[in-house]
Amino acid sequence: MIWKIFVFVVLSTRRSSSFFxxxxxxxxxxxxxxxxxxxxxxxxxxxxxxxxHASLSxxxxxxxxxxxxxxxxxxxxxxxxxxxxxxxxxxxxxxHEHFHCTLVPLTPSSRLxxxxxxxxxxxxFRFRHYQLLYNETQKPFVVEMQLxxxxxxxxxxxxxxxxxxxxxxxxxxxxxxxxxxxxxxLELLPKCEVAWSLDWDPIQHAYTLDIPEHxxxxxSLHAVMVYGEAIVNSTIVPGMAIRILDQLSxxxxxxxxxxxxxxxFTGAYIYxxxxxxxxxxxxxxxxxxxxxNSTNTTSTxxxxxxxxxNEDLAWTLGPEWRxxxxxxxxxxxxxxISAGINKQSYKSKMTKExxxxxxxxxxxxxxxx
Length: 369
Hints:
Layout: H1 2-15, H2 36-69, E1 72-75, H3 77-85, E2 99-107, E3 110-117, E4 124-133, E5 143-150, H4 152-160, H5 168-174, E6 186-188, E7 194-197, H6 212-215, E8 221-225, E9 230-233, E10 241-250, E11 254-262, E12 269-271, E13 279-289, E14 304-308, H7 324-332, H8 343-357
Antiparallel strand pairs: 1-2, 1-13, 2-3, 3-4, 4-5, 5-6, 5-7, 7-8, 8-10, 9-10, 10-11, 11-12, 11-13, 13-14
Protein name: CpeT/CpcT family DUF1001 domain containing protein
Organism: Nitzschia inconspicua
Signal peptide: 1-18
């Protein structure tokens, strides 16, 4: 009788091992224990290290290129000459306005920028402060750049010295707003940040497929607006709202600016090339830190030197770099000055339309990018 009970118990344990155990035993395998889990963890670990080093080198490379290239003077006069040869005037004519960009280093990561029409530094239509942001953990493959406007009194001081951009860092450094003023030295333009990358966007930077720098394989940087677009106030026509779209491409000696402004109501162009062809600004000069020690011991501003790289465009730097006759001939070659084209008539038209619609409070928008 006892042996029958023993056989019953043994057979029961074979049918269900959980009869006696609190949990089922692990399956026994004749093959070695699997290392797939460890291998996956190891691969993920090394992949993370590779991504980290790649991101650091990418950002370092972007910052190095910006330090070397994102400074100096750029001008699109040669592009405008080609436009006029093809009978293309600005705006509806499909051509480009003639303008100049001066980028003055304040620190390795900040720039003071000025834009002026028709090779005339006394006609600056935009000042900006650019601040590069280095974030190796959250955005490893780009370098963002913040845009800010300047205090009106600071702008006025810079305009007084418009023909001497090498003095701008000192003017900027020494300016301090009055205690009673509600305005800061810099006012950040919200949602106007751009992101610089080593890679070009196949849609937003499609224009690069047709430019010689791209086909020749030159190193380059490309930027897009972080938020895609922005609705802002015009600095040229007060009270006018503008929808901004912008892409940038920077090469060692060429700066492409695909800046366009549209009517937020109708989608009509306000400024920018209406054929979708970016402004092509050739390098005129480098503005680099001087090897000589500054004689001003009270200012922390860098001592700078301007090195002309393109003698054919040196006349665009201002009156000290040309004769009156040379300036006149160069302006006649592009049909005269391009600043202010259709500005007054467009302003009148927009003012009328805005007052009729009355649906957008432009005073609530930040200033233009």
